[in-house]
Predict the structure.
Amino acid sequence: MVKKALWLIIAAAVLPLVTFFLLQSAFSAREQTQKIEDEALAQARVVVGASDALLARSIGALDTLSTINSLHDGEIAASYDRARQIAALEPYWSSVIVSREADGAELFDLRKPLGPPVPRTTKSRINSTGLAIGPVVREGQQCPCVAVSRRSPGKGGPYVVTALISTSPFVAVLPLAGPRYGVSALVDPDGIFIARSVNNRERVGRPASRFVRAAVAGPAATGFYRGVSLEGYENYTAFARSKLSGWSAHVALSSRSIDSPTRQALGSITIAALPSLAWAVVLVTFGLRYLVQTRRVAERMQHAQKLEALGQLTGGIAHDFNNLLTPIVGALDILSQRPDLDVRARRMAKGGLASANRAAKLTGQLLAFSRRQKLSLQPLDICAMLADIEPLLRQSAGRSRLELNIAPDSCWVTTDPTQLELALLNLVINARDASADDGMIEISVTAGRTHTRPAWALIVADHGAGMPPEIKARAFEPFFTTKDQGHGTGLGLAQVFAFAQQSHGDVHIDSEPGEGTQVTLLLPSCETPPRAEQTAVEPRALASGPLKLLVVDDDEDVRAAIVAVLQEDGHDVDSAASGEDGLKLIAGNHYALPLVDFAMPGMNGAELIAQARQQRADQRFVIVTGYLDSEAVEIAAPGTPVIAKPFDPDALRRRVRELAA
């Protein structure tokens, strides 16, 4: 009996361990299978993303080509020359073909000298968005290649502009055939091969297997299916579909990589089913705990995404928020110091003032976002580049007037020259579309700074309709566009953003409805300028008595609040609603200290200070700004004292007397 009881105790102790290890083996096998499937699906998405990036670059260049004025005016010879210039920027383009949409007649092909139109019996297929993408098999010795077409209006009827792109870059983004992955391919919506990792030249333009075509014909954007390759090998294939082109990427795995862990999982689960029912409770508990943890992870990810989106939407309102707080703080301070105010009202005014000061601290809590793309970075003088491509920029601007403000000195940055030119063309085209026919597009280069290093700021500004906040917040999202169907892919600004991030720079949009749009592209400079030596400054005494002061601010409430605070201190204060009006007052009066807003329409604070000092070099200034980035103000107006909005009224009064002493 003792021995039997001992064996029962041992069995009771060992059986749970055996069951646990069997179940753990089953879960490990299943997780291994799931990991393999997830990695294959991720690889398919990577292929789709890489092919979309290649296509997006060509589509952007093709958009530029299809909008040139010479093509619209029917000037075929000029269009031929311009097409050759643009095609030279694209290393994978085999040719550019322009034909009439009505009869398919070929007007020119860059692979041949310019000649009379060549009749065709077939026409290019242009979809509802004005875009046609598909494989071409026998178009000369450069093939296999892919045709990307755009419709372009012109005299005598619409034209079809087609770029022939070698499939070699698309083959390069496919995973190499080997022990991990078998055959991989890109397939168009009709089930025709675009690129293939095995026998590419023989397969491009030909139908894929029935398994691939069945997956392409289905409604799912991603998935996993079992089939047989054209070489006769059984496999499991992960696929993902592109929203841009409709192409799908197919990445095949050997059957053994999926079947072996699956059989191991089934065997382990079968053996693990033998223990007592008591362990079922343990398994249920374990499963529920796993589901709870998974949901918590998903909720945390969703929360993080919401916070990121919130940061994007709130980042642009800091300046306006500070402007709103400035008159509130000023009015409450003046009210709290009135001698005829009763105790209760004074307490309420001071409580409101404390709350407004706490609200001002919230403006510093903003978020940012980034995304990347691969570039070939090298030194480039962007000032010289702008001078070189000025004719192309004027062509892209169409009927809009183009004004270039290029610094006289060289502006060296580290970037990808080709991608920078395409990004700039995208920005000019967007500015042209947002402007009236006689509108103005301004391109300028100024000194700037990224988060970590000195930079040059390339600015493209228009005076069009501007963007409401909800549009500006989504402007950099891929495939988001406000243009009519067929007039935009929603990839232009997304490309500009990805290009800026990969160049270790930044890009941002300044726009308000009715006030136009300014896109600033910051690119890191090649050399870091030496830092100015900081010298000790003797503390100044405070100026006594009333002072002659000037307040320049475009916001009426903010201007009135500052004037009221200074007048309470006994000063004689003039005011101006714009930089131009402020400059006139400075020219006709002698002010102890002008207080200038930094961001104003027309002439900003830095420009006002620069022009005023040309007349009076010894004139002192102070900038009163709601911008959180003091480095930007320092770069624009070096050496000028700054008072941040909203300010403590007592601190403002003391600071003014200190600077005017």
User: Anything to note?
Assistant: Residues 27-272 form one domain. Residues 424 and 496 are 8 Å apart (CA to CA). The first strand starts at residue 93 and ends at 100. Residues 306-316, 364-374, 528-537 have pLDDT under 50 and may be disordered.
